[in-house]
Amino acid sequence: MKQIQILLVEDDPVITEFLRTGLGYEGYAVSVVDTGNDALNIIRDTTFHLIILDIMLPDMDGFTVCRRIRNRELKIPILMLTVRKEVADRIKGLDSGADDYLTKPFSFNELLARIRALLRRAGNIRESTRIIQGTLVLDTNRREVRRNGRQIELTPTEFNLLKLLIRHPGRVFTRETLLNRVLGYDYDGGTNVVDVHINHLRQKLRDRPPILIRTVYGVGYAFHPDET
Amino acid sequence: MHLPAGKISLTAKLVFLYATLLISSVLLVSYYSYWNIWQLFITNKTSHIRARAKPVIEHWLQDQKITDPTSMAKKISRRNLLPLARDLTSKDTVAIILNKQGDIIASGKRLSEEPTPPPPNLKYVGKALAGDNEVTYWSKVNDKAILVFLIPLRLQPDSSTIFGAIQMSTSLADIDQILLRNGSMQISAVAIVLCGGVLLGYLLIRYSLRDLHSLTDTCREIAKGDFSRKPKITRRGDEIGHLARSFNLMINQLEKMFDSQKRFSANAAHELLTPLTGLRGSIEVLLRGAQDNPEVLNRLNKGMYKEVNRLIRICDQLLAVSKLENSCHVEKQKIKIHSFMKDFIQQAQLLARNQTVQLLQGPSLTLIADPDLLEQILLNLLSNAVRYSPANSTISIGWKSLGQTAEIWLADQGYGMDEKTLTHLFEPFYRGSSACKSETKGAGLGLTLTRTMVEAQEGSIHVNSSSGRGTTVSFTIPLASR
Ligand SMILES: Nc1ncnc2c1ncn2[C@@H]1O[C@H](COP(=O)(O)OP(=O)(O)O)[C@@H](O)[C@H]1O
Question: Which of B266, B273, B289 is opposite residue A25, by nearest beta carbon?
């Protein structure tokens, strides 16, 4: 699968840092520039699938950058980051050619959702609702799991847990990360909940060696697909 | 316009007052003229009748050929006096003749259309018998006003011997009629004048107060927060015109204040939201799994630490601004500029990163200023100079005397500012293009604060700069008077 290229135009170092890291973890390739001129230069040579554009740039404002990109007849989806919540600003943003906007401080989850929506609209990703890993088939739309064609009943938490693991085969997730991603950032119980859920999941999947959900001692869990 | 119940509007009050004044003055005038006319008529009539009577009496006296009082006594008889009474009687005037005792001797009334004479009033008769030629009074007979004259009868016109009196009475019906006609005319005239006057007054008052009403309405709109409504600028030169104009001035001022306040809070929120975005995003990314990688964890943590410090700095400056704006208590004292600057330079050298800070001594002066504020001003300017100058450049501080003030200046050889920055640099939250060259971002409040502090000490601040040529900021502080 070809990697999605995202251009981030933002001059605040901390925001840049977390966006680069976070989007990197999600599998996007991120390039960063911090001025409007740099942005206009870089898109001349490189093709991007999406631009995340801050409205306040040191040399020009985001609206201008947006308009100039559109003047070049480039149809790259543009997601604007604004601070002001005023309607006039949003209209101005959309008028200048932006496809969507987010007001700071935004949630990273929402940003991801918007990025996916924009990419889908532009036809850059055809997100299949079915994930197939070895004998395991997961349908995110119907929230159905089958192994060797046999349907397995899962609770929502177990389903989300499995979905996260199965999407990143081989990657080791710590218990904390699994807890945060599946039960939410503000869940403040202990991490053994994760072990309990993993155990249930293993039982329901009839997980026998070679085990699908493997324990990485001292760290966490990772998913390894079996051979069909 | 709606007034609370039980309150009378200003228009009603003015109209009422105006009508009362109008009515009372009209009444006074008409009463006075009525009285005047009455007086005039009576005097007129009196002299007329007296003039007519005089020759008749004198003629009669001549006819009688009276020479002494004894011969006269015989002549005072009804038969003798009746022709005289008759001669003095006419259609509206009747004469009766009285003897020395006040008894009626002869009455001139013979025809029925002639008015009945009033019975003699002894008080007035006595006066006439005592020699008063001009006794005139009026009385009423059958509810009709009657004017009565008394003429003493003398032996000779110039004799002091009085043997009787003639009472002549004339009806005032004609005068009454004239006055009545006149009066009713006057009443209708007064009524017309009053109605017209009150109506006119009402219109005039309404017209004058009309702008007051619109002013009130506008006030109410503004109280609701709608500044777009302004009272119409009237070209009236009167007090209400003045009021409307002052009112407009006040609204414009208020609007400006509100706007800058609004802009300030919006900008403040903006300044706070940017670091918060960094913080929230970093935390989210960490929680999603980035925390499992120690290197990434460390990097994001450092970023967050910076953001928190930035938030604290912004909050500190915001607090300082509001403190300065709310109660700027300046504790002024005499400051010897030499020693003060020497102390400051030592601090300054610690703050400079790679720049040299030099002090150029000026004349010895004594300032009158708040030392804490003065130090804060210099620190702010120095921190800007340090942040916006490259390494190995020189920052100089010096002073000179300028009239009744000392001008302290701080010059750097840094990046300088462009025109746009120069015009906006004192605005809260404004950051110029030179700000990008600096690592630590300010909130754009430094110079705003500095100017407030300078002005709190009755000084002024001035910036001289051009792109790439460095910046000189100078401010004045009053000198202590010797
Ligand atoms: N000594 C200087 N040299 C160059 N630019 C300066 C200097 N001092 C101030 N500025 C410009 O003026 C702007 C406003 O300054 P200030 O109010 O102190 O805010 P900040 O906190 O950003 O320094 C800065 O962003 C900078 O662009």
Answer: B289
Query: Quick one: closest CA in A to B305, which residue?
Result: A14
In CATH, what number does B5-179 get? 3.30.450.20
Q: What share of chain B is helix, strand, coil (3-state, %, to 5)?
A: 55, 15, 25
Q: Which residues of B touch A21 (CB under 8 A)?
A: 285, 290, 296, 299-300
Contact predicate B395/B412, CB 8 Å: yes
The reply to whether residue B288 touches residue A105, judged by beta carbons under 8 angstroms, is no
CA-based max dimension of chain B: 164
Answer yes or no: is the C-beta of B449 below 6 A from any ligand 1 atom. Answer: no
User: Closest ligand 1 atom to the C-alpha of B385?
Assistant: 1
Q: Does domain B239-326 fall into CATH 3.20.20.140?
A: no
- Identity of the residue numbered A67: R
Contact B369, B332 (CB under 8 A): yes
Pick from B270, B271, B287 the residue to mutate for testing the A interface (most A CBs within 10 Å): B287
Residues paired with residue B471 on neighbouring β-strands, in sequence order: B412, B465
Of residues B175 and B284, which shows the higher confidence score? B284
Q: Which fold has domain A130-223?
A: Arc Repressor Mutant, subunit A (1.10.10)
Contact B300 A17 (CB under 8 A): yes
Contact between A68 and A40 (Cβ < 8 Å):
yes
Tell whether B274 lies on the interface with A, counting CB pairs under 8 A: yes
Phi-psi region of A132 (alpha: psi -120 to 50; beta: other; left: phi over 0): beta
Question: Which runs of consecutive H residues, i.e. helices, occur in A35-174?
Answer: 36-45, 62-71, 87-95, 108-121, 156-167
Nearest CA-CA partner of B365 in B326, B426, B406, B305: B406
User: By percentage, how much of chain B surpasses pLDDT 90?
Assistant: 18
Residues from chain B contacting residue A58 (CB–CB below 8 Å): 433, 435-436
Say if domain A5-122 classifies as CATH 3.40.50.2300: yes
The ranges assigned to domains in chain A are 5-122, 130-223
Q: How far is the CA of B370 from the centre of ligand 1 (A)?
A: 24
Domain limits of chain B? 5-179, 239-326, 333-478
Shortest CA distance from B276: residue in chain A? A105
Ligand 1 centroid distance, CA of B381 (Å): 9
Sign of the alpha-carbon torsion through A29, A32, A38, A39: positive
pTM value surpassing 0.80: no
> Got the DSSP string for B222-268?
HHTT-TT---------SHHHHHHHHHHHHHHHHHHHHHHHHHHHHHH
Q: How confident is the model at residue B122 (pLDDT cuts 50, 70, 90)?
A: confident
Paired sense of beta strands B471-478 and B461-465, if any: antiparallel
What pLDDT, on a 0 to 100 scale, did the predictor assign at position B2?
55
* pLDDT tens, position by position, B321-344: 777 776 667 788 999 999 999 999
Asked if the B333-478 domain carries CATH number 3.30.565.10, the reply is: yes
> With contacts defined as CB-CB under 8 Å, which chain B residues touch A104?
273-274, 276-277
pLDDT at B1 over 60: no
